[in-house]
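Late entry, written up from scratch paper. The run itself happened at the end of the previous shift, but nothing got recorded in the book at the time, so transcribing now.
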Amino acid sequence: MKRKRIRLFSIVLLLALAGLSGRLMQLQLFQTESYSKHKINLLEESVAQRTQALVIDEGRGEFLDRNGEPLTFTEKNVLVLFPFLKQLDWPVEKVADILHVPQETIRTKVEEAQGPIVFGGKEPLRLSEEQMKEINSLEIQGVFALTKKFKSDELPASQLIGVTGENTDIFHERYPDKVKGANQKIGVSGLQESFDEWLVAEEEAKLIYHVDARGGPLFGVDVKYLAPANPFYPLNVKTTIDRRMQQALEEVADTYNIQKGGLLLLDIESSEILASVSRPAMKSRDPFSGGATNYMLKALIPGSVFKTVVAAAAMDEGIVDERRLFPCDEDIRGEAAEKPHGNINIKTSIAVSCNRTFADLAKELTEKDDHLLDEYAEKIGLLGDIAWRGDVFHYESFPQLQVSEGRIFASDGDRGEPKLVSQTGIGQQEVRVTPLGIANMMATIARGGEKFQVSAVSSVQYQNGTNMFSFPKQKVEGETITPFTAMKLQQYLRGVVNSPEGTAPYLQNAAYTIAGKTGTAQTGNYRGETVKENELYNKWFAGYFPFEDPKYALVAVNMDVTIGEGGIYPIFKDSVDAVYRLDQE
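Output as recorded:
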């Protein structure tokens, strides 16, 4: 009996030892870099427990403007101090003399430090190149003058570029073969998300040293610099944004206190986004507190800007020419118009934005073919594949931008309802289009009917500035409006600004000559009491300039404002003037 118990105990002991050995082999041999379902890198975690480090560069790729200037970061020459200096006798007076700061200030910062610090903290003391050379020539262990990357406090085109976050599950879902850096940041919106695979970090660049349980140097005061071995990575994304124009339009949006809406500027020749401003502004420390939506890519109610599509369809289909007159003393219901204009043709109807004209034309177009308005919205570049999309490496039909789909009718049943069609013809009812689409429509008209996909990124680059991949200008396949219709629309849109009866004479004093279209869309919402003066509108102006030699298409929208506030013409004019000033520099 006794032998039986000893044998049983021995077997249990052997099994326990085998299990323990297996567990140790799992930890030390087989899953050292991807332990458990959470893919924990045990090597990195064990090193982290006995090291202190200062990250110089988190290793994620960055965004550049069209001229190669950084958008998402700034580089600063700074002083780095390690806490073990408090245990050493080091020449603090020499460092203080170079920096022109009191010795005690430096000593105090070191005494307070729990880990490596940048001298000056969030507002670091910036060093000159000469100061950096002098400090590093002292060769003091634990004292380093170096260039460190800092995230930009105010990110230009923030909603377009997007934000990053940490999510281990999503990281491993996206990148099951990546083990190192499970806690690295990943893109969660905008271009950060679209281009995440190119930007995701392989390894941080950091200063590191080993510590004991009390935080003292474990192997002396030897500080090591660790950085990725591949000089070509991480990759950077070169955008089409012009940083100067972006900042100028951000200032316009803030000057006029746009609470909801924004501005979008396109280069007509290249079909590239030069500036994208969306409000409310995104807060860098709390991006999802209300400013994460990019309204420039969101489908909105356009109001009378949509009349441009109706006019294009009616002219191309032979329904209207300049000889035909419309009873613009009446509204779309046949009642007395709030602003009577008499019997006028299509050219004047666009200039004064006569609702009756475009309600009648919309009904005639849908009677001919109830999908004509949808088709012409695509032909003129308002809907459809308007953002850059193509094959990139292993991606088929890779989209640069996530753009709201937009629509003309909510359901096919609406197409047969004359009252709903009338509302649709003036850009109300269920019409939803994006500012990007409207800007692209204006660029299409300015080019004489040629359609191109709009891009926000020109290339993905290696660290040395050479291109890994470029995004070529892409023509949109399929039908477009005729050159004759485009030419007529150019004249009519110019009349909105320079004809005696035009709705936008304020823009005649802009630095560039402008052609474009106004829009005042009813939202169905009110601010407070449900009375007319509290009704909220989306106010638009979309156009291109200079009229004689088109270079830019611009859309301005100020949303959820009452009829007496949020004037769109000063916003548009000041934006055009800002672009003009930059062109003259």
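The CA atoms of residues 332 and 356 lie 5 Å apart.
(Scratch paper discarded after transcription.)
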